[in-house]
Amino acid sequence: MRDMLEFKNVTKKYLRRAALEDVSFALEAGRVCLLLGPNGSGKTTSMKLIAGLSRQTSGEVLFEGQRIGARTKAHIAYMPTENYFYNYMTVRDTGRYYADFFRDFDPNRFDEWLRRMELTPEDKVRQLSSGMAAKLRLSLILSRDAKLMLFDEPLNGVDILTRQQVIEAILTARDPSRTLLISTHLVDELEDVVDTCVYLKEGHLVCAGSKAETSGGMTLRDRYIEIYGHMSEEGDGNA
Amino acid sequence: MLKLMKYEFRKTRTTLLIMMAALVALEAGFLIGDKMDNYKVAGVSLGLLTVLVFAVYVYILIAGIVSYSRELNDRSGYLTFMVPVGPVGIVASKLLYTVLAALAVTALFGGAVYYDYSKLFSRLDLDADTLQQLQFAFTMMSGTMGGNVSLTRVILTLAFETGTVLISIILTMCTAYLAITLSATLLQNKKGFLRLLVSFLLFAALNYATTKAGGLVSRDVVPNTTAELLSMLGAQAAVDLVFAVLFGAASAWLLDRKVSL
User: Fold this and answer.
1) Do B83 and A48 touch (CB under 8 A)?
2) What ipTM was predicted for this assembly?
């Protein structure tokens, strides 16, 4: 079966700085995949490459064998970490925008998510708190039937109670024909649901594969500490 | 593409409405002044209206360029670049909206200005000298059209000149888009004054290049006939059109292959 997403020797440089260096991995359809790494490891860069908001310096990013472009964007849903709406928009307007451009967007499902997330359609998006804004971004992506859903740090800026709500919401999107790619530091909450892990470190791939292959029998948390833990030790040593 | 144009309009709707309200108010000022034979009010309103129509036209064009630049620098650009529309559609939607909006407002209120001036002149008691000067100006114009003024030639020349002006506007927009896109490509994730400066320098350089290229086809003679005039304008317009298409296509290619938000 062809992989849904492939990174083939992808390098992304911003002027002289390499955000990603020769990264290769593949994801199958129907998987819940964690993209792991500390700040600056290349997670958001990877997501933007997949979403078509950025271009790699070299290598290929393929979705179902196709180069990322207008056609693939119809099947990929991306939830960025930041707010990205026009200032004039209300919560309702963001749904209308998505309905205009994405055929797989369901307005009724969006209304339902707004109710569940306790968002008011008439509220201006610029006046939402960071937690409410994150819930809005989540509602938009979950109202689509995209084949690939990208959640970039979905738990950032949300309180503990909301965090659980967000995770449960993301997991409602699980489907054999859909791949969920989630970048997060908070690995504990997703320990039981993840199938695949991709570990990035300073723009390089550490390892990628099933949870069993990449964790070496450890929990995600312990494996995370094993791979990245010495980075904070080195930082303390230099301070 | 049409949907993107719709959202371009939505973004600028409030500002456009305010500007239109000001234009309507000045037109109303003229009509009221004219009705009450208060030529001071009518004249001031008409004068301000004339200036404001030009200012609104320039503002819309500049705002269109600034909007494009903002989308390559701002997170709101995600909304445009996440949707399943190709880079040609993205560039074309912004270009078309800006040009159409500028032309629509200018045509509407420019037409009102023309009508107002006609009304004003017809009610003014022009003396013999002024009439003679107007006739002389018209004779000069007719001289450039082979001394044989016909309605067809006037319409043809006006339409041709309107077309060349339109192409020139499109070329300016496409040059600005290419300068901004090149700047975003070269400076990657650097933002702020440096990117603005590089955009401006690139715009100036591209403008210089197109002007030089246009100079290769223009002739340093005053056209004596309509055919000569149209030929000269046509050659310039053709060069402008070629560059406009090239610059627009180059911007789209860079957006597709090189630019990162």
Assistant:
1) no
2) 0.86
